[in-house]
């Protein structure tokens, strides 16, 4: 019996597995969105708070936001590779975990580079 012709509890189990895959992808996307927002906020703090608050506050705020972005990118991958008990075999194809690892790894590197920009880049207007 093909999966398309399944009825009853077996089909509901497969549909539940499909929903689990989609939920995991939404969770990954939420971690990535949060990380990108924190990264942009850290960069923005460096640029927008110049001449408004003391330099130490700018660097601290930027550091915390950028470090949080790296944390979000790392947690997104951890959640992808350690999702809990395996669901039944779904009908839908999962996004390749290696692709998610590469994207998250790249964004962690961007976060680290941004930290150096926050720490050593100039704040304020030139001159």
From TrEMBL:
Top-rank taxon, per record: Bacteria
Membrane-protein topology: Multi-pass membrane protein
Ranges that cross the membrane: 56-78, 98-120
GO cellular component, one term: endomembrane system
Chief site of localization: membrane
Domain DUF202 positions: 19-80
Compartment(s) where it occurs, according to its Swiss-Prot or TrEMBL record: Endomembrane system
InterPro entries for the chain: DUF202
Keywords per UniProt: Membrane, Transmembrane, Transmembrane helix
Full protein name: Putative membrane protein
